Amino acid sequence: MKILFIRHGQTKLNAEGRWLGSTDAPLSEAGKNFLINKKSIIEKYKPVQKLYCSPLKRCLETADIYFNDMTKEVLNDLRERSFGDFEGKNHDELKDNPYYKEFFRTNWKSNVPNGETSENFFSRTEKAYLYIIEDMKKNNMDYTSVVSHGGVIMSIFSIFDTQKLGFYEYLLQNGCGYYTEIDDKNNINIIEKF
């Protein structure tokens, strides 16, 4: 089986280097233009049999641009982590915050004040991935796509990728992705990064 994982296009908050989790921000005009210009690259990875998507606007809009309004299954568990007190702030505003330092040191495994717990985040993203695999098997699909968030993709890959790279090594630029093959043990093998 193959899965195309795509991170949503850029928002205004992304462009400003601000933490964007549960805030339902739309794509910026620059973000939309980037996706439109990159769409020809995405064409070589099509057609997929099914599209799974986060419920947040930035992902839904990305999916509509890349996949021409293809019907999608929206999975709440593919949404980004709520960053609580970090939400909307940038690195300079947070660099002296002890919770922020611990968050980086532990590869997101520490909790954020007023945010989603790390245990819940990693558990639900793993659950979303395994649901997609089971849905593919049940419906005899061998190629699908997931449009989600940087943190969600990093979380899934940190658990299932066979290369076992560092957590932050899986971070994708906005609008970019991984073309992958899934083995019979649900492990992810990266074929190509784009």
Automatic annotation (TrEMBL):
<feature type="binding site">
    <location>
        <position position="58"/>
    </location>
    <ligand>
        <name>substrate</name>
    </ligand>
</feature>
<dbReference type="InterPro" id="IPR013078">
    <property type="entry name" value="His_Pase_superF_clade-1"/>
</dbReference>
<dbReference type="GO" id="GO:0005829">
    <property type="term" value="C:cytosol"/>
</dbReference>
<dbReference type="InterPro" id="IPR029033">
    <property type="entry name" value="His_PPase_superfam"/>
</dbReference>
<protein>
    <submittedName>
        <fullName>Phosphoglycerate mutase</fullName>
    </submittedName>
</protein>
<dbReference type="InterPro" id="IPR050275">
    <property type="entry name" value="PGM_Phosphatase"/>
</dbReference>
<dbReference type="GO" id="GO:0016791">
    <property type="term" value="F:phosphatase activity"/>
</dbReference>
<dbReference type="Pfam" id="PF00300">
    <property type="entry name" value="His_Phos_1"/>
</dbReference>
<feature type="active site" description="Tele-phosphohistidine intermediate">
    <location>
        <position position="8"/>
    </location>
</feature>
<feature type="binding site">
    <location>
        <begin position="7"/>
        <end position="14"/>
    </location>
    <ligand>
        <name>substrate</name>
    </ligand>
</feature>
<feature type="active site" description="Proton donor/acceptor">
    <location>
        <position position="80"/>
    </location>
</feature>
